[in-house]
């Protein structure tokens, strides 16, 4: 009999699981000592095609040339229709055990149980080769290889979605992606069709507010929250149910890029987030997140404090239902091959385990169809679960047969149930006592209609809640983002209509955006009472862990630099010396360095180099701590930076820098950066 929750034995088995084994080169494949064709024929030459004489035409009979080129021609698979740009890593999830009160899912309920995971982070709109730092929602998809089967938590870094019903997904994506005539703009929402759609389709308003917030430009994947978005139903060992929302809380805190910084980075290093993930893991500076759940009673009306839990455009403020940590995720291993692992991983909301069920959220219901369907064209058929990255660590015996890319040699004649011929080899249905997935019985009734519940009609109150919850600096960033994006629209009518939407959320925000666009601010009906949720705020007084941060020293690889490197390395911070030319100990030259790759900069030498002036001015504008050692004072003066400005650290040591990095940015400087006063040197 199979246990319902993984026993130590099951765990032992999992450690020698097919997934782990599969990561080694498959037996017989790519292991020979000689270069061969795909059929194993040894090849003496792969650099010259077979020709009629050295100057003659190539011969059709050259099977090696044709096999090599044909395989190459088919190396790419279709990119994901959304979330095409992403990168991933392996990790371990360890359960705290406290979730046992609400779920029987072993990977959550069994204290100390470690489960292998693969996480894929992504942007939504851009093509596979687009830049990482564009303004966009980020995907946060996690596959747990549990002993009871794979469980996929396919979430985003924003807790709400643009639409309430899956049937609108093609509409919102067609509107948000590039215009189909010219396939521009790439990976961004600052264009007519997006704003046309969301200004007409006001249920998108709450998500639009998140997309215009700093959450849309994360500093790294390490510093993002993740959300399951939908409400799920958890079931415990006694069969009791609760409604929950899943949250990932980054141990490093939630931090963002400045908008200008994000734009520069998109050109200077389009792989910024991907690189950070891979480099951090290589350096042993693992990304860490806690999984948390908000637990709400499974009431008949599926609401909580008046919030409809089936509406994916609504959050439950943490002040009403605290996020309870139930386990920890550590990303600690880079994939070996991007295509085989990151590109071929297939997530699906229907990959569930006993103890976790879906609700009737109409967006979630549609996703249950879409994710399986999309793999058929992306991965070329129904056998994608056999790909190493998608294999379950739990034993599989599914009775599926044949199909494209079938790699199992099934034996016997029986692939059906019931049967009397399979004998002990054949699979038998598993009841709940042996871990079979049995749905909690729930009454389903209703007339056949195309309609939403009345509560779904409130499109503005939570957008207002979100705006009101932000710090003034974050609010300003949102005003700037709306103004930037709407000013990129060609159609005046779209801008005006969107201002009309904003007016139903917040009057002050509307006035500021309208002023930026040079348009009159329309009147609306914003909610009269809004209770802010401080938990939504990014900028607080907290000091965060600084592992993975980068400090640049404009100077030389001297003793002082070496001492700082040593001291900050202990906290996981990388210190890079930027010198006029390369040499031992120099990681960046004046020509190759740009501000965006540093969280703080120290001017340690006197220079008037123009690129260093730009670097310092950008660091200043992006509110980064700037240190001064010795003659660096002159360099800051050359860059037009006031030594008395907030966050200019005179003669800083490792502790001073660590404290400044822990606050992420010098927030006290930001008010000085308003248009009139900004840009030192400009
Ligand atoms: Fe997805 N989504 N989605 N989505 N989604 C896909 O599946 C879809 C939605 C999310 O790293 C696709 O394998 C529909 C919400 C992530 O591989 C596709 C609807 C949320 C990823 C698809 C939604 C997400 C996807 C494309 C509306 C946050 C990347 C390739 C009903 C909770 C997963 C693929 C990865 C990917 C469909 C809405 C997150 C086409 C129809 C809401 C993180 O199946």
From TrEMBL:
<feature type="binding site">
    <location>
        <position position="120"/>
    </location>
    <ligand>
        <name>heme</name>
    </ligand>
</feature>
<feature type="region of interest" description="Disordered">
    <location>
        <begin position="1"/>
        <end position="31"/>
    </location>
</feature>
<feature type="active site">
    <location>
        <position position="83"/>
    </location>
</feature>
<feature type="domain" description="Catalase core">
    <location>
        <begin position="36"/>
        <end position="425"/>
    </location>
</feature>
<dbReference type="GO" id="GO:0006979">
    <property type="term" value="P:response to oxidative stress"/>
</dbReference>
<feature type="active site">
    <location>
        <position position="156"/>
    </location>
</feature>
<dbReference type="InterPro" id="IPR043156">
    <property type="entry name" value="Catalase_clade2_helical"/>
</dbReference>
<keyword id="KW-0349">Heme</keyword>
<dbReference type="InterPro" id="IPR011614">
    <property type="entry name" value="Catalase_core"/>
</dbReference>
<keyword id="KW-0575">Peroxidase</keyword>
<keyword id="KW-0479">Metal-binding</keyword>
<dbReference type="InterPro" id="IPR024712">
    <property type="entry name" value="Catalase_clade2"/>
</dbReference>
<dbReference type="GO" id="GO:0020037">
    <property type="term" value="F:heme binding"/>
</dbReference>
<dbReference type="Pfam" id="PF18011">
    <property type="entry name" value="Catalase_C"/>
</dbReference>
<dbReference type="Pfam" id="PF06628">
    <property type="entry name" value="Catalase-rel"/>
</dbReference>
<dbReference type="GO" id="GO:0005829">
    <property type="term" value="C:cytosol"/>
</dbReference>
<comment type="similarity">
    <text>Belongs to the catalase family. HPII subfamily.</text>
</comment>
<dbReference type="InterPro" id="IPR002226">
    <property type="entry name" value="Catalase_haem_BS"/>
</dbReference>
<dbReference type="InterPro" id="IPR020835">
    <property type="entry name" value="Catalase_sf"/>
</dbReference>
<dbReference type="GO" id="GO:0046872">
    <property type="term" value="F:metal ion binding"/>
</dbReference>
<keyword id="KW-0408">Iron</keyword>
<comment type="function">
    <text>Decomposes hydrogen peroxide into water and oxygen; serves to protect cells from the toxic effects of hydrogen peroxide.</text>
</comment>
<dbReference type="InterPro" id="IPR010582">
    <property type="entry name" value="Catalase_immune_responsive"/>
</dbReference>
<dbReference type="InterPro" id="IPR024708">
    <property type="entry name" value="Catalase_AS"/>
</dbReference>
<feature type="binding site">
    <location>
        <position position="378"/>
    </location>
    <ligand>
        <name>heme</name>
    </ligand>
</feature>
<feature type="binding site" description="axial binding residue">
    <location>
        <position position="371"/>
    </location>
    <ligand>
        <name>heme</name>
    </ligand>
</feature>
<keyword id="KW-0560">Oxidoreductase</keyword>
<protein>
    <recommendedName>
        <fullName>Catalase</fullName>
        <ecNumber>1.11.1.6</ecNumber>
    </recommendedName>
</protein>
<feature type="binding site">
    <location>
        <position position="80"/>
    </location>
    <ligand>
        <name>heme</name>
    </ligand>
</feature>
<dbReference type="Pfam" id="PF00199">
    <property type="entry name" value="Catalase"/>
</dbReference>
<feature type="binding site">
    <location>
        <position position="367"/>
    </location>
    <ligand>
        <name>heme</name>
    </ligand>
</feature>
<dbReference type="GO" id="GO:0042744">
    <property type="term" value="P:hydrogen peroxide catabolic process"/>
</dbReference>
<feature type="cross-link" description="3'-histidyl-3-tyrosine (His-Tyr)">
    <location>
        <begin position="348"/>
        <end position="371"/>
    </location>
</feature>
<keyword id="KW-0376">Hydrogen peroxide</keyword>
<dbReference type="InterPro" id="IPR029062">
    <property type="entry name" value="Class_I_gatase-like"/>
</dbReference>
<dbReference type="GO" id="GO:0004096">
    <property type="term" value="F:catalase activity"/>
</dbReference>
<feature type="binding site">
    <location>
        <position position="169"/>
    </location>
    <ligand>
        <name>heme</name>
    </ligand>
</feature>
<dbReference type="InterPro" id="IPR041399">
    <property type="entry name" value="Catalase_large_C"/>
</dbReference>
<dbReference type="InterPro" id="IPR018028">
    <property type="entry name" value="Catalase"/>
</dbReference>
């Amino acid at each position: 009999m199979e246990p319902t929750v993984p026993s130590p034995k099951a765990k032992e088995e999992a450690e020698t699981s097919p997934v782990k084994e599969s990561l080694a080169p498959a037996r017989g494949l790519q292991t020979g000592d000689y270069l061969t064709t795909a059929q194993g024929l040894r090849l003496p030459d792969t650099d010259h095609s077979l020709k009629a004489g050295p100057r003659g035409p190539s011969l059709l009979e050259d099977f090696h040339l044709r096999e090599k080129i044909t395989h190459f021609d088919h190396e790419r698979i279709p990119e994901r229709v959304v979330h095409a740009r992403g990168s991933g890593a392996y990790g371990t999830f360890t359960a705290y055990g406290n979730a046992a009160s609400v779920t029987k899912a072993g990977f959550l309920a069994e204290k100390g149980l470690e489960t292998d995971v693969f996480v894929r982070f992504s942007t939504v709109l851009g093509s596979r080769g687009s830049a990482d730092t564009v303004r966009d929602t980020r995907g946060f998809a996690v596959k747990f290889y549990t002993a009871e089967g794979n469980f996929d938590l396919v979430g985003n870094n924003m807790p709400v979605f643009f639409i309430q019903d899956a049937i609108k997904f093609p509409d919102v994506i067609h509107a948000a992606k590039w215009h189909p005539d010219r396939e521009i703009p790439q990976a961004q929402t600052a264009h007519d069709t997006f704003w046309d759609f969301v200004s007409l389709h006001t249920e998108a308003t709450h998500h639009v507010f998140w997309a215009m917030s700093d959450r849309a430009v994360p500093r790294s994947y390490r510093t993002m929250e993740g959300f399951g978005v939908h409400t799920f139903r958890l079931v415990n060992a006694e069969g009791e149910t609760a409604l929950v929302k899943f949250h990932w809380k980054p141990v490093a805190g939630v931090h963002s890029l400045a908008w200008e910084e994000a734009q520069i980075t998109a050109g200077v290093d389009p792989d910024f987030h991907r690189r950070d993930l891979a480099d951090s893991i290589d350096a042993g500076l693992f990304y860490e997140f806690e999984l948390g759940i908000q637990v709400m009673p499974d009431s008949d009306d599926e609401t909580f404090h008046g919030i409809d839990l089936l509406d994916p455009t609504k959050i439950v403020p943490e002040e009403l239902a605290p996020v309870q940590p139930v386990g920890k995720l550590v990303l600690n291993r880079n994939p070996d091959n991007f295509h085989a692992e990151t590109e071929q991983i297939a997530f699906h909301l229907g990959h569930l385990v006993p103890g976790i069920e879906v609700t009737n959220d109409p967006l979630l219901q549609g996703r249950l169809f879409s994710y399986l369907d999309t793999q058929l064209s992306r991965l070329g058929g129904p056998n994608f679960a056999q790909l190493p990255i998608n294999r379950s660590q739990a034993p599989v015996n599914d009775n599926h047969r044949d199909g494209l890319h079938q790699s199992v040699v099934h034996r016997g004649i029986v692939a059906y149930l019931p049967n009397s011929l399979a004998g002990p080899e054949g699979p038998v249905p598993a009841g709940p006592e042996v871990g079979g997935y049995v749905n909690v019985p729930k009454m389903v009734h209703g007339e056949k209609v195309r309609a939403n519940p009345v509560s779904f009609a409130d499109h503005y109150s939570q957008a207002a809640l979100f705006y009101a919850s932000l710090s003034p600096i974050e609010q300003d960033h949102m005003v700037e983002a709306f103004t930037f994006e709407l000013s990129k629209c060609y159609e005046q009518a779209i801008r005006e209509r969107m201002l009309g939407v904003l007016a139903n959320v917040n009057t002050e925000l509307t006035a500021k955006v309208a002023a930026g666009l040079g348009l009159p601010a329309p009147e609306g009906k914003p909610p009269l009472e809004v209770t802010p949720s401080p938990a939504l705020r990014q900028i607080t007084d907290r000091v965060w862990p600084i592992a993975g941060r980068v400090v640049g020293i404009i100077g030389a690889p001297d003793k002082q630099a070496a001492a700082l490197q040593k001291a900050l390395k202990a906290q996981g911070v990388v210190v890079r010396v930027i010198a006029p030319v390369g040499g031992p100990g120099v990681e960046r030259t004046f020509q190759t360095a740009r501000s965006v790759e540093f969280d703080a900069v120290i001017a340690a030498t006197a220079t008037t180099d123009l690129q260093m002036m730009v670097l310092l001015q950008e660091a200043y504008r992006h509110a980064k701590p700037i240190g001064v050692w010795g003659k660096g004072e002159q360099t800051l003066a050359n860059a037009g930076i006031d030594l008395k400005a907030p966050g200019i650290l005179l003669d800083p040591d490792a502790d001073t820098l660590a404290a400044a990095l822990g606050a992420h940015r010098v927030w006290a400087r930001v008010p000085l950066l308003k248009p009139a006063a900004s840009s030192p040197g400009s």
